[in-house]
Write a structure and sequence with these properties.
Blueprint: H1 19-32, H2 36-49, H3 54-63, H4 73-86
């Protein structure tokens, strides 16, 4: 006998959702032109893709390649402040 393929999707039911929350989700889904199901799946995916802790985030950042360039964050902020000060005020 051959091995059965594992399902790639499952149904999930959430009980006890407050009516106000359901209505907000419905409105947001409608405004994006998607079903409530698609909207909630997208929200869960976004949340699941984020690091759960600061340590997880730090581990991800430490694995990123260094940013090219010779600049300092303080210098960038200083340049932005200087540019804002030069803008004419109404």
């Amino acid at each position: 006998m051959g091995a059965m393929a594992k399902p790639t999707k499952v149904d999930l039911q959430i009980r006890g959702v407050p009516i106000g929350l359901r209505d907000r989700v419905r409105r947001r889904a409608r405004s994006k032109g998607v079903s409530m199901s698609k909207y909630v799946i997208d929200m869960l995916t976004d949340d699941g893709d984020r690091p759960a802790t600061v340590n997880e985030w730090l581990a991800e950042v430490m694995n990123d390649p260094p940013t090219p360039g010779d600049f300092s964050a303080a210098g960038v902020v200083r340049e932005m402040r200087d540019a804002l000060e030069e803008e004419p005020r109404d």
